[in-house]
Amino acid sequence: MSRAGLRRGSYDTTAEVFEIGSSPELGVVPEQMYASVIRPERYGAPIDAFRTELVDVPEIPPGFVLVAVMAAGINYNNAWAAMGEPLDVVAARQKNGEKEDFHIGGSEGSGIVWAVGEGTRSVQVGDHVLMVGARWDETAQDIRFGRDPMMSDSQKTWGYELNFGSFAQFALVAEFQCLPKPASLSWEESACFLLTAATAYRQLTRWTPNRVVPGSVVLVWGGAGGLGSMACQLVEMHGGRAVAVVSGPDKADYCRSNGAVGVIDRSEFRHWGRQPDPGTVEAAQWATEVRRFGRAIWDVLGERRSPDIVFEHPGADTLPTSIYVCETGGMVVLCGATSGFIGTLDLRVLWMRQKRLQGSHFANLSDCRAVTELAGMGKLNPRLGRVYSFDEVGRAHQDMVDGRQSHGNSAVSVGAGPAAATNSIRQDSGH
Fold first, then answer.
1. 190 closest CA partner among 307, 71, 296, 276
2. Antiparallel, parallel or unpaired: β 103-104 and 109-116
């Protein structure tokens, strides 16, 4: 393998381009890499928005590391990036002074630390890592005053609001975004679960006093999906009872095998979407259906018990139902809105029954480390479903938008081919 004899920063570079599944000598950085790229002129359906292109490998600032990506996880945020809404991610970054006219998504992944910037201390070249999907300024005043980094004004989603995510041969992350890869997991298993599992963990455990405890009843929307499959396991792990909601009977057995005590098929009900105005015929029909849905929860549990926590992420289609069926004093905790961002609810139910509607966004490093440890110990199954090839990044997101994704979490294989195993690399159990 030839080197160009170039230097960039404190690491060697080469002008040679390496095909997907192969890589240069450990520590040598190519000038260019293959990436699955979104450009504004292609905004639209994910299947058309993503294209494999050759782009420059980014410079490594102080405190940052370049990770050779072995596998990347698939999440809904880059379906939004592909469609250009609700945020034009390229325009937003250019408004803040960044020069790139493209977006490289991917908010989680696994890989090998390939080169490090000045001042890094917690990771070394050759370490096997998972990459955390959020970044913040550790010197920000609100963080220095003790604020949770996920609530810092400086916090942004890597691979969505920030560029150079995991859908490329090399990803750029701050060193604190790197967690040790559990040795018991494959590259693809390691890549697929951290975002959904840590998000679910925070939703279920961080919003005191509405936390899952032994005996808690938790209604889990999308029980067979990535978030839902993590939530059902975590509820069972904490002694609670998860009631999974799915979109078809074919998903019931999967949810039960994943820790749910029972399943409700939402296709058997007809009241989804905006809650009708009071006093209308439509409102009476909605009330009949939502009460029938509530009774279905009782049937699963074998008692007249409403959910202490409702684990929300569909948004517009389900929020009115979530607020209605939640227990008095309970919480609806929401981390997304895949069915739409504008939700409706009956405020009388919210205040008279003293219910809580809580937003929750991804997770801090403590949450991420917790679920990584659980996965490494074999207590949390990453629930890896389909593994896509690198040229199928657009297809993977289109499948998610169309509801055709496999059960659990999906991943894309990037460098985890046979060539990846031939490099002289080391795997530490910790840093």
1. 71
2. unpaired
Task: Give yes or no for a contact between 60 and 66, defined as CB atoms under 8 angstroms apart.
Answer: yes
- The token pair at 245 is 């909601």
> Counting beta carbons within 10 angstroms of the beta carbon of residue 421, is it exposed (0 to 12), middle (13 to 18) or buried (19 or more)?
exposed
Read off φ and ψ for residue 311, nearest 5 degrees: -90, 100
Which tokens in the block code for residue 411? 């991943």
How many CA atoms are closer than 13 Å to the CA of 346, on its beta-carbon side?
20
DSSP 8-state secondary structure symbol assigned to residue 341: S
| CA distance to 55, 56, 331, 361, per residue, from 97 (Å) | 19, 18, 40, 26
Strands 409-413 and 64-73, bridge-based pairing: antiparallel
Residues whose CB is less than 8 angstroms from the CB of residue 213 and which lie 6 or more positions away in sequence, other chains included: 238, 239, 240
394 membership: H or E segment, kind and range: helix 393-401
289 backbone dihedrals φ, ψ, rounded to 5°? -70, -40
The secondary element (H helix, E strand) that includes residue 78 is helix 77-83
Q: Name the residue among 128, 130, 193, 125 with its Cα closest to residue 166.
A: 130
pLDDT of residue 140: 97
Q: Side-chain half-sphere of 360: how many Cα atoms within 13 Å?
A: 32
Q: How many CB atoms are closer than 10 A to CB 4?
A: 13
pLDDT at residue 23 in the model: 85
Q: What is the mean pLDDT of each run of 10 residues along the chain (431 residues)?
A: 44 92 91 98 98 97 97 97 96 96 98 96 96 97 97 98 98 98 98 98 98 98 97 98 96 96 97 96 97 98 98 97 98 96 95 98 98 98 97 98 94 72 34 33
- pTM here? 0.93
Cα angle 22, 25, 31 (rounded to 5 degrees) comes to 75
3-state helix, strand, coil in the chain (%, to 5): 30, 25, 45
